Amino acid sequence: MTGVPRLGERGQGWVWGQFLLAGVVVLTAALGPRWAETATTWIGVALILAGGGLGLWSLSALGGSLSPYPKPRRAGELVEHGPYRIVRHPIYSSMLVALLGVCLVGSGWALLPLAVLLVWWLGKAHVEEAWLREHYPGYDQYCQRVRHRIIPGIL
What we know:
Elements: H1 12-31, H2 39-62, H3 90-105, H4 111-135, H5 139-145
């Protein structure tokens, strides 16, 4: 792995950083100026619920391979079913959707730290995927089948 730091033996710095940035998104949404339209609130609530549902589905699909860190568990297995058929990091996708909802319920100013968080997740995914390649011989073929990391058809 070159260029992107691991931030700890298991990548724990990436986890702490994402929680810090998510907190900044939530605080900015709570303290910034509100949207003028009430429709954004309803759309935001729907996105929060959709993101939560996607997150639960993603966590459930991982089963015993679930780890809070980017480095995979020794006894884990490569998960290719459920939302992992669509994107390689659906937990990041779910948090992105839910936090976009938080921005719509709260303040549009929170979209800026959310964009920073998305860039953070891309760095974290790069580190995680290097470990996954080391751990699972079939990971490169999986990446060929599931081409996008976080946003289907885009990113």
